[in-house]
Amino acid sequence: MSTFPPEIVAAVLHHMNDDHLDDNLLIARAFGESQATSSVMKSLDGSGGIWLYSGPAGERELTVPWSTAISERAEIRREIVVLYDAACARLGITPRPHD
Question: How many CA atoms lie less than 13 Å away from 12 in the CB half-sphere?
Answer without folding.
Answer: 25
